[in-house]
Design goal:
Elements: H1 3-39, H2 45-77, H3 84-117, H4 120-123, H5 129-169
The protein binds protoporphyrin IX containing FE.
């Protein structure tokens, strides 16, 4: 396979998986988790936990694909790029890696614990005050970390959209 074909393939995978990652992260941060935080106690929690699990799976598949294809594109096309555009590209890539770290270190553990506590077996009988407090804390932690992760991906998307023109602007 020629290098050009590999680059076109990597770009196609990169843009498609990047869109899926950023889109899922945005919907989680701005739709699912705020509703779960506000209306979780009114019975919405179980359904929203299922939605969040699906979106989490989408992120778990699309984020590594975006990062691996991005690393390949970096090595193939911008190995020693010291231009302004290269700096914008590096800033965007760093923000995406940071976002992935926030997801792995904060959002995923909070989401897993929430799913466990939302299991029907865990909910049998009246939830203790301690469990209610724990659930509220976990929802807040998941919502804040999802917002931080989505904001970092916002920086990435802006950087990826503009890096080609940065050198012409400065
Ligand atoms: C959600 C995350 C990401 C999204 C949505 C995204 C999106 C994009 C898009 C749309 C382009 C094409 C821009 C253009 O050709 O003008 C692009 C290019 C690029 N991206 Fe990303 N990206 C993401 C994360 C990353 C990461 C983590 C890396 C590196 C580890 C990376 C490295 C690159 C490189 C090197 C290019 C330039 C390819 C070329 O010159 O043809 N991206 N990205």
């Amino acid at each position: 396979m020629s290098e050009l074909v590999l680059i076109v393939l990597a770009r196609a995978i990169h843009v498609m998986s990047g869109v899926a990652w950023a889109g899922a992260a945005l919907v989680l941060a701005t739709v699912v988790l705020p509703i779960a935080t506000r209306h979780g106690a009114d019975g919405a929690a179980r359904w929203l936990a299922l939605v969040a699990r699906r979106a989490g799976t989408l992120v778990a598949v699309s984020a590594p694909l975006t990062i691996l294809s991005g690393m390949y594109l970096f090595a193939a096309l911008h190995p020693h790029d010291a231009s302004a555009g290269g700096s914008v590209l590096k800033t965007g890539a760093a923000a995406a890696l940071l976002s992935a770290a926030v997801g792995v270190l904060f959002s995923r553990p909070a989401g897993r614990k929430l799913l466990q506590l939302n299991q029907p077996s865990a909910q049998a009988g009246a939830a203790s005050l301690e469990t209610v407090r724990q659930l509220a804390g976990l929802r807040m932690r998941a919502a804040v970390s999802a917002r931080v992760a989505a904001a970092l991906l916002g920086v990435t998307v802006l950087a990826m959209a503009t890096f080609r023109y940065a050198s012409a602007l400065v």
